[in-house]
Amino acid sequence: VSHFTARPMYSIRNRHERFLSKSSLADICSFPSSNRTLSEIKIKAMVVSSAFGFNQMLSSKHHNNPSSSSPMVLGTRAFPTNNKTTGGLIRCELSLSSVSALQQLKKSAIDRYTKERSSIVVIGLSIHTASLEMREKLAIPVAEWPQAISELCALNHIEEAAVLSTCNRMEIYVLALSHHRGVREVTLWMSKRSGIPVSDICKHWFMLYNKDATQHLFEVSAGLDSLVLGEGQILSQVKQVREKLRNGFGMVIPGLFEKAITAGKRARAETGIASGAVSVSSAAVELALTKLPPGSASSATMLVVGAGKMGKLVIKHLVAKGCTRMVVVNRSQERVAAIQEEIPSGVEIIYKPLDEMLACAGEANVIFTSTASETPLFLKEHVESFPLPADARLFVDISVPRNVGSCVAELDSARVCNVDDLKEVVAANKEDRARKAMEAQDIIIEESKKFEAWRDSLQTVPTIKKLRRKTDRIRADSVVKFMSKYGKDMDKKTKEAVEDLTRAMVNKILHGPMKHLRCDDTENRPLPETLENMEALNRMFELELELLEEKIRAKMDQK
């Protein structure tokens, strides 16, 4: 309701603009049937507007002449559709004596915030939509996630929130009282924190609601939205978010991430989407290990020539496959030392200078080459001079130009694999992962349905709590009145008996309604039927106002 002035038209502009407490709404809207003066009503309305931040959200307009005696017009989208619409607002003309119409207004304002549940919204920018520079500015370090979540939850229309910030994506998941205003508040928060204008964020973001948001997170957790299909790091990052949400950050969003982890695990376990190398470096290691005799991988001598980007990745993949000792040849020792710092303890990396390369190669079973040399490092005459190995020495050359001369492949004592051989492996694995991604979609859909069913079941929890509180409040008030009139002559034991009796009566009366609100395994009632029962009880016991006041109280406590 807009500021109360002499103007006769007031507007409620949006379905989830704000929420009013029972007393505030009644005090403002019931003025035709009360004895309050217009000045008193204006003061009350200004207090409520200030308390709930209406000043910039609601507007008032003149209808004909402010001093005229024409009927007062109240505009709201919450009213049933009629023929009197102007500017997108559905209007209902009331005379000052029309109490029933004002009751309709009160009821419609309540319904906006109790009949529709909050929306799950994801606002994100990823490697698919935004540049690295923009993602860097928006990125939030893991240590700052709890603070960011607290700030987001303090926004007017946000109940719960989570942050998933990685090198490839920045995504904010929220449970919003109003998805329009919630998105606006989150976007302004992102802009303020990063220094990026809202207009630039909007050019590169994506937004998904409810079921689409749920399915997106499940796909992310399963690695289906990653550059490398099925990669495992993103699942670990989703688990990190789940851990940050354990400290009282709501129920729906933490539940969403819990189910996302389940979906990610199932997709990998049941489809094998994470198997098969899909990068040149990982394919080089995978291919080399398959060429070795069974059981000899851990004892084989590994030589890596070059400690640049590709060489570093080869070393990390070898470590991931269980290799604990390797020799690295490089021009400078600094790069090798830097790699050693990133490798877990227990792995031995032996540095050798470039002039000892041939001697080291003569002792190795597998040789990986990844240097920028424009001429081959290994020629036929070099390899012929090496001691004969028990099995053919394997050269895995991932350099362009090649570090191993094509003539080396002519020797019986050597086997050579180059980039083209590895690309075939990568392409085959990528095609296989794409097929498995289609299978994973079925799992994603199944887990999404389970989450939606779980979320639907939560709707009855507030009704159960409020019904219990309301009936107990009525019971307590009645006992107090009874005791004030008849309790003077009662001893302590009799008074306790009255308390116990009234509680037992209330429990018996509530047994039937509570039974029809349960969504656990004790009742085999379909969920739609349970939700119908919930709505009926909300109407019969007038719980909507209490549910509304709880939302207001929660937001005010956050502030």
Automatic annotation (TrEMBL):
Record-linked InterPro entries: 4pyrrol_synth_GluRdtase, 4pyrrol_synth_GluRdtase_dimer, 4pyrrol_synth_GluRdtase_N, GluRdtase_CS, GluRdtase_dimer_dom_sf, GluRdtase_N_sf, NAD(P)-bd_dom_sf, Shikm_DH/Glu-tRNA_Rdtase
UniProt superkingdom: Eukaryota
Alphabetized Gene3D superfamilies for the sequence: Glutamyl-tRNA reductase, N-terminal domain (3.30.460.30), NAD(P)-binding Rossmann-like Domain (3.40.50.720)
Keyword ATP-binding attached: no
Domain called Glutamyl-tRNA reductase N-terminal: residue spans: 123-271
Domain Quinate/shikimate 5-dehydrogenase/glutamyl-tRNA reductase: 287-425
SUPFAM superfamilies noted in UniProt: Glutamyl tRNA-reductase catalytic, N-terminal domain, Glutamyl tRNA-reductase dimerization domain, NAD(P)-binding Rossmann-fold domains
PROSITE patterns recorded: GLUTR
Coiled-coil stretches: 531-558
Keywords of this entry: Chlorophyll biosynthesis, Coiled coil, NADP, Oxidoreductase, Porphyrin biosynthesis
Recorded catalytic activity of this chain's protein: (S)-4-amino-5-oxopentanoate + tRNA(Glu) + NADP(+) = L-glutamyl-tRNA(Glu) + NADPH + H(+)
Pathway: Porphyrin-containing compound metabolism; protoporphyrin-IX biosynthesis; 5-aminolevulinate from L-glutamyl-tRNA(Glu): step 1/2
Tetrapyrrole biosynthesis glutamyl-tRNA reductase dimerisation domain residues: 439-543
EC code(s) of this entry: 1.2.1.70
Recorded family membership: Belongs to the glutamyl-tRNA reductase family.
Protein's UniProt name: Glutamyl-tRNA reductase
Organism expressing this protein natively: Brassica napus (Rape)
